[in-house]
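Morning, I've got a small favour to ask if you have a moment. I've been staring at a protein lately and its backbone has me curious. You're getting the sequence in one-letter code plus the fold written as tokens. I've dropped the whole record in just underneath, so have a look:
=====
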Amino acid sequence: EGLKATVSTSDLWISGVSDSNGTVSYKVSENNSGSSRTGKITVTYAGVSKEFTITQSLKIQNLSENGTANCYIVSNAGSYCFASFKGNSSTSVGTVSSVAVLWESFGTSTTPAVGDLIKSVSYKNGNIYFDTATTFKEGNAVIAAKNSSGKILWSWHIWFTDLPQEQVYYNNAGTMMDRNLGATSATPGDV
């Protein structure tokens, strides 16, 4: 009795580390790093130290939280998910057994290596999950949901670009995006 544990960390994303009646408490900042991260907390009691490892996953951004689509824009490296519905509807694509990246393209003569845009893709509880490459790259990819026979049930275009801006056309022609679908730049002559 009378001995108190000391608790410490050198990881800046872990804060408020404390011990109260044998319970270690801590807070972590939101993970927007582009990948999972690992930190350590050291607890010392009666001259004996024990190190505990904390792994923080990425925050998963739900691309379909404001409505489903057939094309989703991604502007930063990270982890994403979307509901497996047909385009702009609430109609299920059916029984999904697997998901796959069908193709990736930079829109240039350079051919991406597998994983240059999407490094992993999976399916769980009606949602398709994917992680981008750690370093964000502009381009386009298609993710497909397949049934147990390998037949494609539906596919979604993932558009890796900065967020397109609205452009108002003259003569009341309407408001459009500042670039064509799939273009990674609004600058004329770029792809």
User: Anything to note?
Assistant: The mean pLDDT is 86. The radius of gyration is 23 Å. The chain is about 0% helix and 50% strand.
